[in-house]
Amino acid sequence: MNGHTSEHQLHWETSPWPLVLSIGILFLLPFAFSFYFVYSKPVMAVLSLGIGVPLTVLAIAGWISEGVGQKDEPGFSIAAMPLFIVAEAFIFVAFFVAYWVMRLGAPFWPPAGTPEISTGVPIIMTIILVSSSFTIHFGEVKMERGDKGGFLTWLVVTIILGTLFLVLSMTEYSHLFAEGFNFKTNSYSTAFFSITSFHASHVLVGIGMFICILIPALMGKMSKSFVKAASMYWHFVDIIWFFVVTQVYFWWAL
Asked: Which domain holds residue 113?
């Protein structure tokens, strides 16, 4: 084991970012949701989000920056990502099972107070997200061929498509809020916003990962293992969306 490897391993063993990320997620999810839905304290929920969001973004950026630009050793990123994906998949399964129990046990569906939800927008969102899986794949191909310019181009296109997906999600939310359809309207609205926003948060994390790869890449620093792990995560987000769009958008009125 050479000196460089020892320093590299020590650097990862003493990383502070996992702890920072854990604290950020703690404020971002359980604290914010508890303050808003359990204790009816929206101001405290906003303050919790104000702490959680910056900490989460900072931790993701710091954690990725530790690996990007280092010597491109295989490490554990590619092997660990499937384990992380499986853990996240079980969380989505819990959401879907809760939704199925409500949906199949309800005497009629959708519940009273549910407006007509357009299926046109989610179709467009599906096309955008599927396209982004192809663009990041094209970026990987360019990276393997040593075409830095091509890789950066497809990476930027992927970031743009992911951002457009989130913009459409927020636009749809604003229309539904304007019609009085929000988190507390009925059981379907709770499931709808919980599942779709949880998926949107994964899209946001994916975009953050790509930005954290893009910035060092523009300076000539790039880790192939990080790119492959991030791409693997993005394909997972894409696959989960098929379950979201079919179950939450198209099955709700059947």
From this structure: 77-250
